[in-house]
Amino acid sequence: MFTMSSKLTEFITLDEKDINGDSWCGLCGATQVCMPYKALPCTHIYCYYCIQAAMKEAEETEVPCKCKKCSQEVTQITPYSLI
Ligand SMILES: [Zn+2]
Ligand SMILES: [Zn+2]
Prior knowledge:
By secondary structure, the chain is an alpha+beta fold.
């Protein structure tokens, strides 16, 4: 769908099938996240900066960080490349 040809992009595109095509960042709306991180346990993809900031805010406000895509509580984040 996207015209980028980097290996990273192809990798994300491949995995889209497993995550219902949600490789875009639900926090900033970027369709190409530059440093993909997975929200756990739901495994939705976000930019590292976005999800990290959301987790930090959740910690400070003591309001659980919820995934913008599925509303599941995000308990952990992990680098996408560690799959
Ligand atoms: Zn983002
Ligand atoms: Zn989710």
